[in-house]
Amino acid sequence: MVSCGALHSFLFEYDTPRIVLIRSRKVGLINRAVQLAILAYVIGWVFVWEKGYQETDSVVSSVTTKVKGVTLTNTSTLGARIWDVADYVIPPQEENTVFVMTNVILTPNQRQGHCPELPDDKTECKVKNDCVPGYVSTHSSGIQTGKCVPYNSSSGIKTCEVFAWCPVEDDNHIPKPAFLQEAENFTILVKNNIWYPKFNFSKRNILPDINSSYLKNCIYDSKTDPFCPIFRLGQIVQAAGQDFQEMAVEGGVMALQINWDCNLDRAASHCVPKYSFRRLDNKDSAHTVSPGYNFRFAKYYKDSNGTESRTLVKAYGIRFDIIVFGKAGKFDVIPTMINIGSGLALFGVATVLCDIVVLYFMKKKYYYREKKYKYVEDYDLGVGETYGTNS
To answer: CB of 303 within 8 A of CB of 27?
Structure first.
């Protein structure tokens, strides 16, 4: 019977809003306070802060870089040597990134042949049977021949002989301080072109008022030259709260961030880049396994006899990732009307909240409930009011 009654009520009853004017200071103040809060949210947050009256678009970007700087090193193995861009920028061009070598381990004049493996707990041996012919592991410099040979004449250590590029690389000792200390003073020119396709708006970070003479002499400074696109490497690292000379020893990854947030309702001259810097690879004293950034490459040569040799380079350095992001907005009727409609709909929250207070929390809640609701029967049946309030 209960379910039938509920079904009957659901199918054959209809409710319609009834306006009841309640003269109460408490309820009136609550209603106006909620309406005021909603109005402040719609105007302050939606339209002023979030610019809800604008259509938005994400940035499309391209980046090119150019590094400049020369330094001199003088070591017992290499002698006096000049290092320029062709030596320390590897590879010459990458997409949205540039690697600058700051430290290096060189193994010159390597040739393929037989030589002792670098000593460690897996390659040291005492007798021939400790070495397995053809054995190679992930960290091997070559393939074992099965012989146990002296590592060098100055020590009694023996290691397994390998067929490899000889002599094998010894990278147990990283140069400190960094080999290219002066890389701190190298500069990088960042050329960034951006486009907002929805608005057909394009611009570049070399602003219209920057001339060639200024570009030749300026260096970025957040206070004096905030729009100069030339950055000193040491300044980038320092702005991220890092020490360049410390980072240069084992390398790392830095981010040069360019933010293009543009309000296209204003003049195009107000759409300018904002630069920021941070270190991307985690520097954590509690996690020191495989720190920094490094890789190997080789330079190959052939002598007059056709014998091939190479110089193996283990390069440590700083990779600078140029990260471009941003959003542009411009007035449009559709988002404006949508947000106005959403704001007007929110005013219904004030009515619902006040109804809850009046009908469930006030002392005269039963009296207000009686005034709020009125029940009538079907007029076609000739039945009058059964209960409720007078009209």
So the answer is: no
337 CB contacts (<8 Å, ≥6 apart)?
none
Distance, in Å, from the CA atom of 273 to the CA atom of 279, rounded to the nearest integer, reads 20
Is the model's pTM score more than 0.70? yes
Give the pLDDT confidence of 8-49 residue by residue, as tens digits.
677 777 777 767 777 778 888 888 888 899 999 999 999 999
Rounded to a whole number of angstroms, the distance between the first and last alpha carbons of the chain is: 33
Tokens of residue 361, six digits: 């929390």
Q: How many CA atoms lie within 13 A of 149 on its CB side?
A: 15
DSSP letters for 200-241: TEEEESS-TT--HHHHHH---BTTTBTT--EEEHHHHHHHTT
- C-alpha to C-alpha distance for 110 and 163, rounded to whole angstroms: 12
Specify the DSSP class assigned to residue 370.
Answer: H
Phi–psi pair at 79, nearest 5 degrees: 75, -160
Quick one: CA dihedral 242, 244, 248, 251, positive or negative? positive
Radius of gyration over every alpha carbon of the chain, rounded to an integer in angstroms: 38
Beta-ladder partners of 314: 105, 296
Q: Is 167 left (phi over 0), alpha (psi -120 to 50) or beta?
A: beta
